[in-house]
């Protein structure tokens, strides 16, 4: 895409000056920051924006938002970047209108992706159709942040209004998944990639929360109410209410009323069903619940996560339950917490044993007020880049030269976001 190299260069020089005592941070920051802008962003003929996830030729609704968020400070100064972000929101909303249950899409209509192994309603636009609540949260978040950071309202077009209504409808239907048209099965030996019970998912009871088939890792939920994703939904429903009411978008009275009602019901569901206890007997947030009494004590390195609850805006860093939850999931009580020779952090069922995720390390830094701890994590991320100058999906805690995904733009931009946070940018 075309943008002012001078404005971006000045911005990078500003960060480099602030970080002059950390030249290793600067080198990785500049490489990650420019790589996403120069190599993943494509402006389409209709003026909308497609953002490649990296080494997979598709766009995830979740990843594309996270990849672009660190450009919001520059978007205040550079109109082409501001327009690019608005164009991404427009493209995301069109994809949601095409299928609100899909998580990843193709740049053009074709039959690439998992179509030969997946049994669900597919089209040539869909790369993958794993339903994840957060896939609908992220575009609303980006639209809201673009407005708040820059004053831009171009993204609030007719498609945004229609897609917002569609999101509200899906989340309402999925409060009782028995009424849902969504089914998903994959022909695979990997159980995390397919839903049980003929594609319907595990047993559940009604809770007021909204059902999810899969986690942000694209692995299936063990229990059907993913607490971090419901937290995120509560936050963005507040954004939606503010957008429609303040800008008086089409049908704003009905939309704001529905958003407020749904937000209250999901929040109440979290309050009634979303807690459990750790081994010390302390009250903590559960990762997943089913409304039948089952709850999991764990966390996943993708976002939304329990670790990311303050980052998402659901609670404060100082919240007592959050702090107890944080200590629990950053310990051996979480089956996906790994400690090794070089690092410690959150791994996932999605990647190899004893591999931890830079995204989760960045979230650790973004959810503490301790600048010394933030600096420690930035140093760790640079030291564990496998000698590439870039972040990866995951790396081995005993040998960072072993990592997954050569090119993973979301992880790159989470490093950038932590640098910007460290310097209050």
Topology (elements, then pairings):
Elements: H1 5-18, H2 23-39, E1 41-43, E2 49-51, E3 59-60, H3 61-68, H4 72-75, H5 79-98, E4 104-105, E5 118-119, E6 126-128, H6 133-150, H7 158-173, E7 185-186, H8 196-199, E8 225-226, H9 227-247, H10 252-273, E9 275-277, E10 283-285, E11 288-289, H11 309-312, H12 320-329, E12 337-339, E13 344-346, E14 355-356, H13 358-366, H14 371-383, E15 394-396, E16 399-404, H15 409-422
Antiparallel strand pairs: 1-2, 3-4, 4-6, 5-7, 8-11, 9-10, 12-13, 14-15, 15-16
Helix pairs in contact: 2-15, 3-5, 3-6, 3-15, 5-6, 5-7, 6-9, 7-10, 9-10, 13-14, 13-15, 14-15
Tell me what the structure shows:
- The protein is mainly alpha-helical and 425 residues long.
- It contains 15 helices and 16 strands.
- A three-stranded antiparallel beta sheet has the order 3-4-6. It has a three-stranded antiparallel beta sheet with strand order 14-15-16. The protein has a two-stranded antiparallel sheet with strand order 1-2.
- Helix 5 runs antiparallel to helix 6.
- The model has no long low-confidence stretch (mean pLDDT 97).
């Amino acid at each position: 895409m075309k943008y002012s190299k001078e404005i971006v260069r000045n911005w990078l020089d500003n960060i480099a000056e602030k970080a002059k005592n950390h030249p290793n941070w600067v080198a990785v920051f500049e490489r990650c920051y420019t790589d996403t802008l120069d190599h993943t962003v494509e402006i389409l003929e209709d003026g909308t924006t497609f953002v490649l996830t990296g080494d997979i030729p598709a766009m995830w609704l979740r990843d594309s938002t996270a990849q672009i968020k660190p450009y919001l400070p520059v978007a205040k100064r550079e109109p082409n970047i501001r327009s690019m972000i608005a164009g991404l929101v427009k493209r995301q909303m069109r994809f949601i209108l095409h299928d609100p249950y899909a998580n990843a899409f193709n740049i053009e209509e074709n039959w690439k992706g998992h179509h030969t192994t997946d049994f669900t309603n597919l089209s040539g636009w869909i790369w993958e159709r794993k339903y994840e609540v957060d896939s609908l949260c992220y575009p609303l978040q980006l639209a809201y942040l673009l407005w708040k950071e820059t004053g831009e309202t171009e993204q609030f077009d007719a498609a945004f209004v229609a897609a917002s209504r569609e999101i509200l409808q899906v989340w309402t239907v999925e409060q009782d998944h028995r009424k849902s048209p969504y089914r998903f099965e994959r022909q695979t030996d990997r159980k995390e990639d397919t839903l049980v019970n003929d594609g319907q998912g595990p047993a559940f009871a009604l809770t007021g929360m909204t059902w999810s088939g899969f986690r942000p890792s694209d692995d299936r939920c063990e229990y059907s109410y993913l607490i971090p994703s419901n937290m995120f939904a509560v936050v963005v429903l507040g954004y939606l209410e503010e957008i429609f009411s303040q800008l008086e978008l089409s049908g704003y009275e009905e939309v704001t009323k529905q958003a407020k009602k749904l937000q209250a019901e999901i929040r109440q569901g979290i309050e009634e069903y979303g807690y459990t206890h750790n081994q010390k007997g302390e009250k903590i947030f559960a990762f997943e619940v089913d409304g039948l009494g089952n709850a999991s004590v764990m966390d996943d390195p993708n976002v939304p996560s329990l670790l990311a609850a303050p980052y998402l805006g659901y609670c404060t860093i100082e919240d007592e339950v959050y702090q107890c939850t944080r200590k629990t999931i950053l310990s051996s009580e979480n089956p996906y917490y790994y400690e090794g020779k070089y690092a410690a952090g959150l791994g996932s069922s999605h990647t190899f044993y004893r591999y931890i995720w830079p995204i989760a390390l960045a979230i650790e830094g973004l959810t503490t007020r301790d600048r010394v701890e933030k600096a420690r994590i930035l140093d760790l991320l640079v030291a564990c880049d496998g000698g590439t100058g870039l972040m990866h999906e995951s790396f081995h805690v005993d040998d960072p030269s072993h990592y997954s995904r050569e090119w993973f733009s979301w992880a790159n931009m989470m490093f950038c976001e932590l640098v910007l946070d460290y310097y209050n940018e």
